[in-house]
Structures are given as structure tokens and as C-alpha cells.
Amino acid sequence: MKTLADYYRTKSPDLLDKCHQFGALLDQLRAEGLYQPLYRLELQGPLDHTIRVRDPRSGQERALICFDSNSYLGLHLHPRVLSATRRALDEAGYGTPSAQLLGGTNRWLRELEETVATFHGRASALIFPSGYAANVGILTGLLRSGDLFLADRLAHASLHDGCRWSGAHGGTYAHRDPADLARQLSRAEKVRGRLVVTDGVFSMHGRLAQLRDLRRVTAAHGAYLLVDEAHSVGVLGETGRGLEEHFGMPGAIDILMGTFSKAPGSVGGYVCGDRELIDYLRFYARSCVFTAALPSATCAGITEAFRVMAEEPEHRERLWRAARRLWAGLRQVGFTLEPLESPILTIPVGDLALLLQVGRELFDGGLKVGTVGFPAVPRREGLLRLSVNARHRDEEIDRSIEVLARVAARHGLLGVTQAELRAEAAGGAP
Hints:
This protein is α/β, with parallel strands linked by helices. It is 42% helix and 15% strand. It has 2 domains: 28-66 and 314-426, Alpha-Beta Complex (Aspartate Aminotransferase, domain 1), CATH 3.90.1150; 78-311, Aspartate Aminotransferase, domain 2. It contains 16 helices and 13 strands.
């Protein structure tokens, strides 16, 4: 089956020809019942451990167990967070219809900046309207022609986009491979600044960046380190401070980026660091300068979410209990899984057509599970992605294991590894 890459360009001189061809693919997927259950599914309530949706085939409302929410701690529904949001909404309204440089900075945004900086033990923080905008703004704001970037091959798309759009020179290093990173830094000549870019928790596979190795290599080669902590904050470390706390290395990350759309349960992104770095980016990160600021009510809710993360560790404890239960249960019924490093669990499927079929069967069985194909993962390395959160109940975990095992057995996926699927696609042995 074709992937998104096949529609990136066509030979036609008609600018919209690729749109017409891609539309024909979507029509085919809709006819086969493979499109709506996986994308553009209409939610009838909050995105939570369970969801209510309108089934696109029957038109009837259904309840599903959901593993597609990144609100790891369920804070988007926490009473304290909702109360703080309502108070600010009543006082300041629902929007911020101006850029900061023109309309000023609302006090709730200033408080959020201070809260985030303190949470991470940094001097200052800058807030963006989304995590994607944060990464693009940081990278295009800092990197110049003549500078060098090296990004982990499986880093988030926003990091790769920001690096490419910056005009700096660079490329990728092998996934979580400090030796390859060191080799490439050693070969780099006639460059000015050097920046290594990585996820903290890799969002598609749930693996951790090896902070000790990254810090050792960057220090040896005079490079700075940027880490996207989107899936780490609130999740890793004894108090949820992320990768640095997990490895016992406070202050090890030079440029610490994060998002509010994961554990804090909202929307937005940020970068924190020393005051000179943040003051510079306030004027040179165009995705912050030339856009409206986050609304006051959103800022108030996120600030309260950070307080809850610090004051109520029970949410993080429930999250990890649920993740361990799902991981152990899936292994017991025959799945081959990577060691549990984060609340993101993945099951290799491989072929895109099979991935879509499996996703539909899981949907029919009452599960909403992420189906991840190219370009989020390499070609022919499609996978099921399960993101556990603190609100998943034991009976929901156990029911999900039963459905996943039944569907996987039907398609011969129990015990299969990603390396085996990759070898099969290439026609050889692993």
C-alpha cells in the first residue's frame, strides 16, 4: 500500500494534482472502512481512558477503551485545574487577541513562565502556542548558516523541521547511538556553533535518550544539547522533573524544551534555560514573536497542573502501576515487547495495509489504539502505539490485553519482533 511519501509530489504541472491523487486514496480507504475509525473520529466527550465516539459506519454512539491520550496524569480533568481555568476565564475572557509585543503579556502567562522555570530549576522560560512552534522557533532562532546540528534519526518531526529550516548545516545520527554521534562531531570541520538535538522520551517507541552518554559526547566536542522533554515531564523521575531527575543529572540539558499537551493536559510549548538564552529567543524565535499568546485561562490551568504534579504524586504512581500491568499482561499472552522505560508501549505490525486492518479490528473490539506508519516511523515498520494514563482501571487494562491478543493471533503477530518484520520486508534474515 502507498504511504504519504508517494503523494508528496507528482510529475504533473498541475499544482493540485497531488491533492486529487491523494483524495482518491482516501476515498478508497473510506470505502473499505479503514479511514474514519483511525482518523477524524468524532469524540462525543473528553479524550480520556475511555471515550464516547460516533461510529462512522453505524452512526451510533459507542464507548471505547482509549490508549491515544497523552494526558498521562489525567490533569485535563482534575478539579483543581478546571477551577483555576474557570476563574481566569471569568476574569480575562477566553482568548488573547494580540501578540505579546503589541498587546502586552497577561499576568497568568508571566506566572506560568515563572512556574515552569522553577519546576525545572532554570532561571527563565519562554512560552509558545504549541510544542511544534516551540521547537521550530528555538532552532530557527538559534542556528545560523555555518552552524552544525545533529539530530537523533527518530527525533520528533518538529525538531527535524526546525533544524532544516534554520539554514544551518547538519544531519542525523543513528538512533540512540553515542558512538555515531561522536564520529560525526569529530569529522565536523569549519563549523561555528554545534548543537545536538534529541527527544527525551521518543514519542513513537517510548524509549529514553541516554542522557549520560549524550552529555559526555557533547562536552568532549564543544557542542550544546537540546532535549525535547514533551513525554518526560510529569512522568520520569521521583517528582516528575523528567530526564535529568531520572538520571540524577540536574542541569545537564543546555536547552530544555517541553510541551503542555502531555502530562499537563493542555496545549502549548516552552523552552527554559539561563536568562540570556531566553531573552534572546524572546526577540528571535519568530513562532513566538509573530503569534498570539496563550489565553489567560489556558495559562492558569497549566500553572495549576504543574502544582498538582508537584503536590500529588499519587497520579504518577497510578500511571506506572497501569503501565506495568499492561506490559506484563501483554508479555504473558505472547507479545514480544521492549523493556518498559515509559508509559508508551508499542507492538510491531510492519505492513501498512495490515496495520490499518488490525486497527479497524481493534476498533470493532472496543479499543482505540494508535496505528503509526510512515513518516512517523520508517517504511514497513508500522506499529500499534499504546499510551497508558493514570486513569486506566485494572479491568480496562485486562480487557484490552484480551482483545489485543485475539486480534494479533488472528494475524500471526504474537511473538513477532520489529527486526523480524524488517527482515521479512527486505527478503532476508534479521
